Amino acid sequence: MVIFHINGSCQIFSLLVFDQIEQYLVENRGFTPGLPLHIIAHSSYIAALWFVPMCILFFGDFLGLFGGLVFTSTSFYMHCVMWLVTQKPKAFSFHRLTLWSVLLLVFYL
């Protein structure tokens, strides 16, 4: 299961790391740029990236915890803030006080 969680983030968020690894190998280590270097550099980086989380116990639980923290803020908190910004309710109206109480409750949870 860890492989499925990490696979998508490897392909998207590690592109800059892939480029830096290849640039380092070409400029400082004297490798010739090409498809074999590209495949070897990417494969070794992804293998190392997969090996570390598989060795950490409960890595899936960590992903679930961090994902839950992120989704809570985007699911509850951001909608309240966007409504406050777009609707601009009066200073001490019922809607504004209720919304701020929900915001604080979600923030403290």
Automatic annotation (TrEMBL):
Transmembrane segments: 91-108
Superkingdom to which the source organism belongs: Eukaryota
Cellular-component GO terms for this entry: endomembrane system
Keywords assigned by UniProt, alphabetized: Amino-acid transport, Auxin signaling pathway, Membrane, Symport, Transmembrane, Transmembrane helix, Transport
One Gene Ontology term from the biological process aspect of the record: auxin-activated signaling pathway
Membrane topology type: Multi-pass membrane protein
Main location: membrane
Residue ranges constituting the Amino acid transporter transmembrane domain according to the UniProt record: 2-107
Cellular location(s): Endomembrane system
Gene Ontology MF annotations: symporter activity
Pfam families named among the record's database cross-references: Aa_trans (PF01490)
Record function comment: Carrier protein involved in proton-driven auxin influx. Mediates the formation of auxin gradient from developing leaves (site of auxin biosynthesis) to tips by contributing to the loading of auxin in vascular tissues and facilitating acropetal (base to tip) auxin transport within inner tissues of the root apex, and basipetal (tip to base) auxin transport within outer tissues of the root apex. May be involved in lateral roots and nodules formation.
Similarity field: Belongs to the amino acid/polyamine transporter 2 family. Amino acid/auxin permease (AAAP) (TC 2.A.18.1) subfamily.
The protein's name in its UniProt record: Putative amino acid transporter, transmembrane domain-containing protein
Species assigned in the record: Rosa chinensis (China rose)
Classification lineage: Eukaryota, Viridiplantae, Streptophyta, Embryophyta, Tracheophyta
